[in-house]
Structures are given as C-alpha cells and as structure tokens.
Amino acid sequence: MIARLSLTARLTLLFTMGSGAVLLALGGLVGGAIEHHFEELDRAELTGKLQHARHLIGQVETPAQLERLSGPLGDAFLAHHDLVVRVLGPQREVLLATPGVQPPAQVPVAQEDLAPVPLWTWTQDGRSYRGLAASFPTAMATRVEVAMAIDSGHHDAFLRTLQRSLWLFVACAVLSMGLLGWFAARRGLAPLRAMREQAAAVTAQSLDRRLPAQAVPAELADLAATLNEMLERLEEAFRRLSDFSSDLAHELRTPISNLMMQTQVALGRPRDAESYRAILESNAEEFERLARMIADMLFLAKAENGLAIVHREPVDLAREVRDLFEFYEALAEERGIALALDGEGVVQGDRLMLRRALNNLLSNALRHSQDGGQVRVSIHRQDGQLRLSVENRGETIAAQHLARLFERFYRADPSRQHASGEGTGLGLAITQAIARAHRGEVSATSARGVTEFSLRLPA
C-alpha cells in the first residue's frame, strides 16, 4: 500500500509520524517528571511530619505517658484534613487513627532512615493516598509505629488535566506538522516536477532539449546530468537511425528501379531468347547485390546487439593476408599495383570473420589506390595488441570524412557511389563490427596522399 503512495505523501507521512513520536515521547517525559516531582513533595512533607512524631515519641518515659501520647499526636496531625495517621503501640494496639480511613495492614516500615523506604499507595472510596511508615523508639526502650499518608487526589486531578492538555496539544501539533511537512515536501519536490514536465516535452522532433542541471538542487543535479547524457545518446542514435533509414532506402531504390525498368522494357515487346537471357543475367546481378546488402545488414544488426558468435581459434594473420594476395593478384597486376607484407602474428578469433575484415580493408585499399602504386600490409605488436595496418597511395581523405568512414553507406566521395562496381557501402562498417566483436578497434588516417587503415586486436 505504501509503495503506491506518491513521494510527497510518503515524506508527509514519515514527517508526521516522526514528529508525533517525538511529541509523544516529550509528553511522556514531562508527565513522568511532574509525577516524580509530586512524589518528592509528598515524601518531603511526610518525612517532616514523621520527624515531628519521632520527637514526640522520644519523650515518652512511662506507660502513662504512652497512653496519653495520642493527645499531642492528635493535636499535631489530625487537624490536617488531607493527612491520614495511624499510630500503633508496642503491642500493635492502635493509639491513634484517622476516623473513616483504613490504611493497608502491611506496609513497608522504616526503622531509622526514611530515605530508602519507598512510598506506598492505596485507593479507598475513590480517593488515592500516598504514604510512609516508620518505627520510632521511646525512652522506655519500646517502639511505636507511625504510618502517615497524604491524599493525592489533587495531584492526580492536575495530572489528568495535564494529560488531556498534552494529548490535545500533541494532536494539534501533529496535524500542524503534517501540513507543514506536506508543504515542505511539495516545495522541495517542485524541481522534480519541473524536470518531469521538461522531460515530457521531449519528443522525436525535439531531442535536442536538455534539462537545466544548474537550476536544480545538488541532490538532483546528478540525475539531471544523467538524463541529459541519455538524451544525447538517444539523439545520436535517432540521428544515426534516421540517416541509416534514408541511406538504406536510397541504396535499395537503385537496384529495385533497375529491376523494374529492365522488366518493363523486356515486357514492352516480344524479344528473342538471347535478349531475355541477357536481361535475366542483368537482373540476377541486381538480385545478388540486394542479397549481399541484406546479408550485410543482418550481420551488422547481430554484431551491434552482441549476437555475432565468435568461434575462438588461433588465426595466423600473415597467412590470411597472403591468401588474399593470391585472390587479388590478377586485379593488382592489371593495374600495376604491388602487394607487400611485413611482419606476422597470431590472434585468437573467428577465422572467417577476421578474413572478411581483412578482405574489406584490402579491397578498399586496392579500389582507391593509384595505378602503379603499392598496397602494403604490416603486422606488429604494439602496447600489448597486435596491429595490422593496410597502407595505400591515392587521394587524401579529408579530416571531416575520416571519423565517418565506418558508418553504414557512408562514402567520402558520393559521386563514386556505384562507380566501378563498388560494394554496398557496408564494408568498413562490417570491419568495425568484427573488430569490436573481437574486443579490438579499427581506425583510419590519411595525409599527403597516403591512407592507412589500422586493425588492432588483443595479442
């Protein structure tokens, strides 16, 4: 039930319960202190009267004086209407007793010192009494027991009135503290409500909005900063998703348009079998392009969501590079490009995935290398990692393009988008996904006509 309460209600409830507990404890402390004070007053008064009775009893020297002791004791104590007295002789005979009141038969009796003897209480006819008893010696070496009690009804009445006043005060104070706590919690949580309203205003069209971290209390500043960081990530992800959707639509439109146009042209008039065969071969190339693009997108989706399965095995990078050199040897000789390899190294990873990454880097270098140039692959250890670099000479890539080379469908030169049979524009993005799946990274540098792609993997 409490879990469904609002934060303001929880704070108000806790504040009210806490203040109520403090006020109740304070009321109990005050009531106990006053009751203890009344008890001490009664003890002091009874002690004084018992001391006076001791003085009178101590002057008794004969049995005749003992029989007449009730006279001076009665004159001294019976005149007090709120005082109850009972005097017992050496044989427990009653020498003096307040009429109409019967103290308990067995009460604690002090012999000399009255301090350690507790006060005893009893109730009769709706009236409360608090008493003290002591045994005093006479001059005849006998002892007389004196019990005195004070009517504590006026003290009890005062305590009851005080308790009612305290309860009323506590109730009003708790109510007031509850209202004050609600107001304080409401005002204290106002920045949180403001943050909620500002966050509610964030939509897909206004992801650039940020929460004012400097305008909120220190306790909420970290929350505002974290939410702003989340909004930045969402804005970046949404931007990339929008760009990707646009690029994907653009990339798919071209082969589909080609297929539709060729099919419509083929259906425009009757043709011979050879013409239909040529059109089908052309369509097959477009279908293959679409299939590669879909397969690459599926691989990227799996890699970015941690679903790309990496089969760990020793992979000799130099051997893989030499195998790729053999594959591209004819293309390199046609353009007069020399292929060179320096160094060697072995990593733990998925051989097919790493071969695909190396193939993407090598084909990219060959595609953008100048005729008669050289593509050099270097493998060496650096800072506990194995670094494989692919270097070629060609056009310098501008700095603003380097950071985006590994984005999907991104090309530094859009005019060459489909020139010379280039791929789907996903090769470098796939290379980066493979590197990250192997806890590595890939980067690119370009200066003075030399472009270098570096693949770093755990050694």
3D structure, described in words:
The chain is an alpha+beta fold and 459 residues long. It has three domains: 2-175, 2-Layer Sandwich (Beta-Lactamase), CATH 3.30.450; 215-303, Helix Hairpins; 308-458, Histidine kinase-like ATPase, C-terminal domain (Heat Shock Protein 90), CATH 3.30.565. It contains twelve helices and 13 strands. It has helices at 7-58, 63-67, 70-77, 153-188, 190-200, 218-268, 273-304, 317-327, 329-335, 351-368, 399-402, 427-437, and strands spanning 83-88, 94-97, 109-110, 120-124, 127-137, 143-151, 313-316, 338-342, 346-349, 374-382, 385-393, 441-447, 450-458. The strands form three sheets. Strands 1, 2, 3, 4, 5 and 6 form a six-stranded mixed β-sheet that branches. It has a five-stranded mixed β-sheet with strand order 8-10-11-13-12, with helices on one face. It has a two-stranded antiparallel sheet with strand order 7-9. Helix 8 (317-327) crosses helix 10 and helix 10 (351-368) runs antiparallel to helix 12. The radius of gyration is 52 Å and the shape is rod-shaped.
Concise structural overview:
The model is unreliable at 415-422 (pLDDT under 50). With 459 residues, the chain is of the alpha+beta class.
Which key features would you list for this structure?
3 domains; 459 residues; 18% strand; Beta-Lactamase; single chain; alpha+beta; 6-stranded mixed sheet; Heat Shock Protein 90; 5-stranded mixed sheet; 12 helices
